[in-house]
Amino acid sequence: MRGNKKELADSKDKQLENYRAHDEGKKMTTNQGLRVSEDEFSLKAGERGPTLMEDFHFREKMTHFDHERIPERVVHARGYAAHGEFELYESMKKYTKAKFLQEPGSKTPVFVRFSTVVGSRGSGELARDVRGFATKFYTEEGNYDLVGNNIPVFFIQDAVKFPDLIHAVKPEPHNEIPQAATAHDTFWDFVANNQESAHMIMWAMSDRAIPRSFRMMEGFGVHTFRFINEDGEAFFVKFHWKPTLGVHSVVWDEAQKLNGKNPDFHRQDLYESIECGDYPEYELGVQIISEKDEFVFDFDILDPTKIWPEEDVPVKIIGKMTLNRNVDNVFAETEQVAFHPGNVVPGIDFTNDPLLQGRLFSYTDTQLIRLGGPNFHELPINRPVCPFHNNQRDGYGRQTINVGRVSYHKNSLANNTPSLSSVDEGGYTHYQEKIDGRKVVARSDSFKDHFSHAVLFWNSMSEPEKEHIIEAFSFELGMCKEKNVRQQVVDMFSNVDLELAQRVAKNVGVQQPVINRGPKVKKSSPALSQENTVKKPDTRKIAVLVGERFNKNVPVIMEALKNIGTHPVTVGEKQGFIKGENGDELEVAQTFLTGDSVLFDSIYVVGGEDTSHQFFESAAYFINEAFIHYKPIGASYQGRELIEYLNLPSNAGIVMGDAPSEFLEEFIKAISEHRFWNRKTY
Ligand code: HDE
C-alpha cells in the first residue's frame, strides 16, 4: 500500500471495519445462518423429558461456549489495549531508512497493549510489578513491534534464564500462593542467587512499579537495537516513550487498597480517558550511539541490565503517539494481538544482546500454543495494512484462499512469483555485522558488573523515593518466611547502599550488614527521579464531598475545575440530587459506599448546611485516607470546619479558602504537585 498520509493513518481502522459484526437489530441465526426460533428451551422428549441429541442449536451453542477460553499469556496475562496513531516530528533519515520514520507529519496507525507481568488474567492491576508497554506500528512496509516495559532494564542478561525467573516469581507451585506478587520466598531466593537482577530490583522496589495510570508511565525498548540508513551505515539505538502527563505513582498502601476497591483501576482509567477525549500521549525518544563509540562507555552497551544515562546520551524526541480509540471487543483485539520483538522493518535490526536474541525465538513459539496454530497473523488485529504474499499454506483456521497451484519457490508456472524484492524495492536484509568467535557457553566479562547501575539508580532518588524503596524491600522481605532468604537479600543490597540494607535488616529481623563491598559510584542521573517529572493538573480526578444546602459557589468552582481539564466528581451520602442554599441542584455521582479516597487524586471538602453526623464521619474517613496518602486536600465552607475539627498533624498540601478565585489558584497548584511528601502524617 503506497497511499497518501491520511489513508495510511486510517488504514488499520478501515481494514478492521471489514471484520466488525453489528448484531444489534438483526435476526438470530445459527453459525450456519439458519434462523433460530427458540433460545430458551432445549428440544426434549416430552415437557419433563431428557434433552435430545438432535437439538443442533443447543449443541452448537454449548460447544462454542465450552471452547471459549484460550490459554492466557504465560507472562503479561493481565493487559489492556487501545488504538491510536504515531506522528513523526522529525525525519530520522540520517539514522534509519524505516519508512515510517522519514517524513515529518506522517502518521502511522498503532495498537498498544499495557500489562502487568506476573498475575493471571483476572488479577488486580495495582500489583507491585513491571508494566508491559507493547506497541504495534502498522507501517506501509509491514508491522513493526516495539515490545517494551515501563522499566528500562531487565532482571537477567541471558534469555536461557527466563523460565527460571518466571518460575520463581509466579505463585509457588505447591500451593499456588501468592497471586500477582513478588513478595514471597522463591522470588527473593532467585534474586539473591542471581545477582544480575540487582539493578532491576531497585526499579521494581521503587514507585515505578506502582504507576498511577498507564497514561503516566514511561515505556522503554530495554534492549539496544540497530538503526540502518540508506547508505548501510548502522547506529545503536534505544527507544523511550515519554508520557506528556509525566511519570506518577500511587503509594503502596493505596495500591493494596485499590486492588480491593477497584481491581480494574488501570484499565478503567485508560478506557474512560479515551472515551471522554483525554487521549493519552507519549513522545517517542531515541538514544543513539554510533558504531565507533561502541566501547567508550564504562559498561557494555549491549547489557540489558544497564541504562544509557540520559545525561550522557541525550534522548532525542522524534514523534508522538496518541491513543484515541478503545477496542470494540477485548477478546478479538486485546487478547488475540500477537506481539513479537522480531517484527521489524527495513532500517531496524537487532544487536547481540543475549536477552533479545532469546526473545526472538520465544514470541512466535508462545503464540502457536496460545492462538492455536500458525495462522494467527491472519487475525484482524494482527494483519499488516500492506499486502502479504508467500508460499506458506494451510494449518488450523486458515482463512486466506490462496488461488492457483503454485505454492513453492522457485517456479516457472507462476513466473517465479511471489517474487523477491531487492533492497531498493524494500526487501529486508540483515545487517552484515562481522562476527569472529568460538562457540562457547559463556557470559562476557563486560556483563559481570551487577551493582554500578543499581547504585547509580539509588543515588538518583530523592529522599521520599529512597524511603519508599526501603519500605518496599521491608514489605517484600517481610512476606518471606525463610530467614535465610531475607538475610541473603539484605547482604546482597549492602553492595548498593549500607544504610538501605541496614534499615531493611532491622525491619525484617535479620543481621545488619556492616560493610559495603559494592562499587563506589558517586554519579547520579536526575532523569531517573520522578521528582523531576512533568507536573500538571490535567485529567486529575477530584472527589467533591458535598451535602445538602451546599454553598452557592460550589457549582461555580466545579465548573472552573472542569475548565482547566480536571474531573471533579460529586461524592455524597446518597445517590440522586441534592439542593444548594440557593436552590441549585447537583447530582451525587458516587456515594461514600461506592466511592473511596483511593480512587481519586485529590479531594475537595465543601459539605453543606444540612449535613448529618454520618456525613461528617464518612467525610472524615475520606480526608484521613487522602491525608496519609499525601494527596492534595481542598476545603471551603462547612468543609473547612471539618478539617479544623480533625486537627491533622500537618497542613502541607491542604488548601483552605472560600473565595473561589483565590482558592482555585492555590488548589490547582496543589493538584499539579500530585503528592506532598513533606507532610508529616503522624
Ligand atoms: Fe517478554 N514475553 N520475554 N519481555 N514480553 C511475552 O509473549 C520473553 C522481556 C514483554 O501485550 C510472551 O505473547 C522472554 C523483556 C511484553 O501481548 C513470551 C524474555 C521485555 C509482553 C515472552 C522476555 C518484555 C511480553 C508471553 C527474556 C521488555 C506482553 C506472551 C528473554 C523489553 C506483550 C507473549 C503483549 C510477553 C518471552 C523478556 C516485554 C513468553 C523469553 C526484556 C510487553 O513470549
TrEMBL record:
InterPro entries: Catalase, Catalase_AS, Catalase_clade2, Catalase_clade2_helical, Catalase_core, Catalase_haem_BS, Catalase_immune_responsive, Catalase_large_C
Keywords: Heme, Hydrogen peroxide, Iron, Metal-binding, Oxidoreductase, Peroxidase
Keyword Transferase: no
Region (Disordered): 1-33
Cofactor(s) for this UniProt protein: heme
SUPFAM superfamilies referenced in this protein's UniProt entry, alphabetically: Class I glutamine amidotransferase-like, Heme-dependent catalase-like
Role: Decomposes hydrogen peroxide into water and oxygen; serves to protect cells from the toxic effects of hydrogen peroxide.
Protein's name according to its UniProt entry: Catalase
Name of the encoding gene: katE
